[in-house]
Design a protein that fits this description.
With 52 residues, this protein is mostly helical. It has a domain at 16-49. 58% of the residues lie in helices and 0% in strands. The protein contains two helices and no strands. It has helices at 17-40, 44-49. The chain is elongated, with a radius of gyration of 16 Å. This is Transposase.
Amino acid sequence: MNSKSRYPPSLAMTFTREQHSACKDVLGILKVLTEWIRFRIGDPQEAGAGAW
């Protein structure tokens, strides 16, 4: 874990490369779903901007 973590060392977790990749994939899916929901509820300007 890098030294700029916002969590204290006692809470630091280490991930394998595979776990890290899986987390990135899930975050990407959540981003797409968020944009789709924003578009569906009628906020297309926000849908394109993204929250990330």
